[in-house]
Amino acid sequence: MNLILMGLPGAGKGTQAEMIVDHYQVVHVSTGDMFRDAMSQQTPIGLKAKSFIDQGELVPDEVTDAIVKERLSQSDIQQSGYMLDGYPRNLEQAQALTQINQELKQTLDAVIDIQVPTQILIDRLSGRFICRNCGATYHKINHPTKVPGTCDRCGGHEFYQRDDDQPATVKNRLEVNLKMNTPLIDYYQKAGVYHEVDGNQNIDQVFQIIDKILSQLH
């Protein structure tokens, strides 16, 4: 079985990825892992990617696509199938993946998109705050202080948020991701492999929905 896992930051994609891998024994292929593997093995395409990364530049699509093809052609994936995470990121990469699958005689079986309302994602991602005195980290939803406004560790009363945890920054990040995902959703809906999953439930309920979709593909 071959699938793509989609979801905005904070949607719980990482947790569901682990559960899918445990249950279905597919190979979890994340963009970061692919780049690290290709660079550590010093494959020609890995060295090409490294030259861009070392200069602080974005790796061009054609180099990323070549790294994906290199990874998807390896024996573990030929045997067990793949779950792509973080790729494709745009329509051009999605079209390249279709070509890669054809060349490797593979079939993309499903695209699972974990959807959570944007405001809930903003609350999840911007909920972190830090004690200015001792650096203890809290979250307004998942890990609040025991006494409101008082640090559990040092008793301090001053807290702050990092810039990238500020609601406005988080909202902007989500909007950028949403914009990138929209053409992908359209592309895979037309291909008949797109499945939207309500991620605004507990972890087990979300996985039950995913499991129901994937079990029908076997």
UniProtKB/TrEMBL annotation:
Record has Endoplasmic reticulum as a keyword: no
One GO CC term, this protein: cytoplasm
EC main group: transferase
Adenylate kinase active site lid domain boundaries: 128-164
Reaction catalysed by this enzyme: AMP + ATP = 2 ADP
Keyword Repeat carried by entry: no
Binding site for AMP: T31, R36, E57, L58, V59, G86, Y87, P88, R89, Q93, R162, R173
Molecular function as annotated in GO: AMP kinase activity; ATP binding; zinc ion binding
Record Gene3D superfamilies: P-loop containing nucleotide triphosphate hydrolases
Domain of life according to the entry: Bacteria
Record GO biological process: AMP salvage
Primary site of residence: cytoplasm
EC number: 2.7.4.3
Binding annotation for Zn(2+): C131, C134, C151, C154
Sites where the protein binds ATP: G10, A11, G12, K13, G14, T15, R128, T137, Y138, Q201
Pathway noted in the entry: Purine metabolism; AMP biosynthesis via salvage pathway; AMP from ADP: step 1/1
Classification via Pfam families: ADK (PF00406), ADK_lid (PF05191)
Residue numbers spanned by region NMP: 30-59
Keywords: ATP-binding, Cytoplasm, Kinase, Metal-binding, Nucleotide biosynthesis, Nucleotide-binding, Transferase, Zinc
Compartment(s) where it occurs, according to its Swiss-Prot or TrEMBL record: Cytoplasm
Annotated function: Catalyzes the reversible transfer of the terminal phosphate group between ATP and AMP. Plays an important role in cellular energy homeostasis and in adenine nucleotide metabolism.
Domain comment as written in the entry: Consists of three domains, a large central CORE domain and two small peripheral domains, NMPbind and LID, which undergo movements during catalysis. The LID domain closes over the site of phosphoryl transfer upon ATP binding. Assembling and dissambling the active center during each catalytic cycle provides an effective means to prevent ATP hydrolysis. Some bacteria have evolved a zinc-coordinating structure that stabilizes the LID domain.
Family in the record: Belongs to the adenylate kinase family.
Quaternary state and interactors: Monomer.
Name listed for the protein in its UniProt record: Adenylate kinase
Organism, scientific name: Bombilactobacillus mellifer
Record gene name: adk
